[in-house]
From TrEMBL:
The lineage of its organism: Bacteria, Pseudomonadati, Verrucomicrobiota, Verrucomicrobiia, Verrucomicrobiales. The keyword Transmembrane helix applies. Belongs to the UPF0057 (PMP3) family. PANTHER family: HYDROPHOBIC PROTEIN RCI2 LOW TEMPERATURE AND SALT RESPONSIVE PROTEIN LTI6 -RELATED, UPF0057 MEMBRANE PROTEIN ZK632.10-RELATED. This is YqaE/Pmp3 family membrane protein. Signal peptide: none annotated. Coiled coil: none annotated. The chain crosses the membrane at residues 39-60. Keywords: Membrane, Transmembrane, Transmembrane helix. It is found in: Membrane. It comes from the Bacteria. It comes from Haloferula sargassicola.
Length: 61
């Protein structure tokens, strides 16, 4: 049986992964804050959506 912290950690990763697919900059901001990683993801998302999703998933997972 998994401990509650492990279950919560897995739930957070799953939720962040789902957010990363639909709103990549939000997922990166929730994980990293408003750092350079967020701004890079925002630019990637604005240029073309798919690179933003890939970058967000790499950051989140």
């Amino acid at each position: 049986m998994a401990t509650p912290t492990t279950s919560t950690g897995a739930s957070n990763k799953l939720l962040l992964a789902i957010i990363a697919i639909f709103l990549p900059p939000l997922a990166v901001a929730l994980k990293e804050g408003l750092t350079g990683t967020f701004w890079l993801n925002l630019v990637l998302t604005l240029i073309f959506f798919i690179p933003g999703i890939i970058h967000a998933l790499l950051v989140v997972l």
